[in-house]
Design goal:
This protein is 23% helix and 32% strand. A 6-stranded mixed sheet has the order 3-4-2-1-5-8. α1 links the parallel β3 and β4. By secondary structure, it is α/β, with parallel strands linked by helices. The chain has a single domain, classed as 2-Layer Sandwich (Ribosomal Protein S5, domain 2). α1 crosses α2. It is built from 3 helices and 8 strands, in the order βββαβαβββαβ.
């Protein structure tokens, strides 16, 4: 059985190298029978990869509290990070990945055109987005219907 869900996310990147650029990333996630492994593709940088792993570990540790009845260890997951504006820069995608994973495991589609900003800790604390203006300006016109920060 294979299901997919798609999630867009924008956030700040590389502030220490001059003006910040915004990255617009789409997180694509699918599951298949397996043993609880997570595979990440699409050339994410280290901070993006760490952000996804943090969110995945949080979801695995608290799957019952999140209302996830499926045994996460019974499936393998493949997440692909798609850079929509070809910045080649990383981004904090933990909250967006958690929403995509929750959507997949609960079989509840995410609203199309949703942009999610912010990062999360291993304990599930959501850190505030540093900026709304720049990431939303980078988003494709007519694509964004709702933003969560």
């Amino acid at each position: 059985m294979q299901r997919s869900t798609y999630q867009a996310q924008a956030d700040r990147v590389e502030q220490e190298i001059g003006p910040a650029q915004a990255a617009l990333l789409r997180i694509e996630l699918t599951q298949m029978s397996g043993s609880g492994k997570l595979r990440i593709t699409g050339h994410p940088d280290r901070s993006t990869r760490d952000s996804i792993l943090t969110a995945f570990d949080y979801a695995r540790a608290r799957q019952r509290e999140l209302g996830i009845d499926q045994e996460v260890e019974s499936y393998d997951f493949h997440v692909q990070v798609v850079d929509l504006n070809s910045t080649g820069e990383g981004s904090a995608v933990g909250v967006a990945f958690l929403v995509a994973l929750y959507s997949l495991l609960r079989d509840k589609p995410v609203q199309s055109g949703l942009v999610i900003l912010g990062e999360m800790t291993i304990h599930g604390n959501v850190l505030p987005a540093r900026s709304l203006a720049e990431p939303l300006q980078v988003a494709h016109p007519g694509y964004v219907e709702c933003a969560a920060a």
